[in-house]
């Protein structure tokens, strides 16, 4: 994922959910970025380029012990 895309996603997550959310590049991966709330890992944002329409999918696993 390009640095300008990460900046835009970072601003979006901060504005929509929480100012403490941070989007970071993933090591050795260029099709996704990691999302954190402070130091806590929340999930991954993936690029979806299907049919020429670019979109982003946020995937967050919720463990049973966290409920």
Automatic annotation (TrEMBL):
Pfam families in the cross-refs: DUF3126 (PF11324)
Origin: domain of life: Bacteria
InterPro entries from the UniProt entry: DUF3126
UniProt-recorded name of the protein: DUF3126 family protein
């Amino acid at each position: 994922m390009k640095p300008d895309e990460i900046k835009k996603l970072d601003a979006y997550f901060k504005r929509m959910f929480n100012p403490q959310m941070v989007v970071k590049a993933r090591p050795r991966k260029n099709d996704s970025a990691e999302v954190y709330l402070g130091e806590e890992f929340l999930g991954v944002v993936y690029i979806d380029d299907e049919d020429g329409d670019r979109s982003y999918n946020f995937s967050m696993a919720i463990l049973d012990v966290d409920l």
